[in-house]
Design brief:
Strand content: 35-45%
Number of helices: 3
Helix content: 10-25%
Radius of gyration: 22 Å
Number of domains: 1
Distance between the termini: 26 Å
Order of helices and strands: EEEHHEHEEEEEEEEEEEE
Number of strands: 16
Shape: globular
Structural class: alpha+beta
């Protein structure tokens, strides 16, 4: 049964560089407001979400195991071991961890940075995320969604060619207080593009008269942005900054695995 719990590994061209990407997003406790009013939130639900992918992978694995009896699992394990002995199931080399899957922990270097931020009265950590991904020269990686766990809006309707329909069997679209994405791009040098937003819902004051509504914010959101694109260097702790938001990024190259000594804990979902 042990083989059923092995992390997913993907065969790939060894010439394609792969990286471990880690991001910590925080606010400045005494930062100057650079917020703008928005009546409708930007939708980041189409971006690749490592945390959602990890949760889905974990749930799928649990569902698959629950459908199998103990005898079925034992028989499958025997067949798998026989196949390995005959050389029929040996994986291609090199193999890489599944990309864009949320990791359970930060690296020691980023753990220390996170601890310093948490101990500082001048910063408020909003979220962190870590994942593996490939990145070829002359190409861009997927846009990766980064968000916290505080929804500020939920969409229960979807737009279709024939109009607006209920979401029904689909999951609703959540918009979070911290939401947005980052993307790596490899040119002559590596670039990181960020588009993060920190949103606060506005509520009209109960003391305002109807004649004042057109002069003052009446609902909608106050949105702080961190939108930057610049060159970064793998292996170096990079700092992105705005008046309100800050972000630490660490990107390090990883080596292919041989399928026998993979770090199993690194590909577990971040479920906290």
């Amino acid at each position: 049964m042990t083989l059923l719990m092995l992390p997913v590994m993907l065969a790939a061209d060894v010439a394609t560089p792969h990286y471990r990407v880690e991001v910590i997003v925080f606010t400045h406790a005494e930062g100057r407001s650079d917020a703008r009013d928005m009546q409708q939130l930007d939708d980041f639900s189409a971006l690749t979400d490592p945390l959602a992918r990890a949760r889905k992978t974990t749930e799928s694995s649990a569902d698959e195991l629950s459908r199998q009896t103990e005898l079925d699992a034992v028989l499958e394990l025997i067949d798998t071991l026989d196949g390995l002995e005959e050389g029929n199931l040996m994986p291609e080399l090199p193999v890489w961890p599944e990309p864009y899957l949320a990791l359970e922990r930060l690296s020691p270097k980023m753990e220390r940075a996170l601890a310093r931020l948490n101990d500082s009265s001048g910063h408020d950590v909003l979220s962190w995320r870590a994942w593996h991904q490939p990145l070829e020269r002359g190409s861009a990686g997927e846009r990766v969604r980064i968000h916290d766990d505080e929804p500020v809006a939920v969409d229960w309707l979807k737009l279709t060619p024939v109009g607006i329909q209920p979401v029904s069997d689909l999951e609703p679209t959540f918009h979070y207080r911290l939401d947005g994405g980052v993307r790596l791009r490899q040119r002559q040098f590596m670039h990181l593009e960020s588009n993060l937003q920190w949103r606060i819902e506005q509520v009209a004051s109960p003391w305002m008269s109807p004649l004042e509504f057109h002069d003052e914010p009446t609902g909608g959101f106050r949105v702080h942005r961190l939108s930057q694109s610049r060159t970064i260097r793998p292996g170096r702790l990079e700092y992105f900054d705005s008046n309100w938001l800050g972000m630490l990024v660490l990107i390090e190259p990883i080596d292919p695995l041989d399928g026998s000594d993979a770090d199993h804990e690194d590909v577990n979902a971040e479920m906290d």
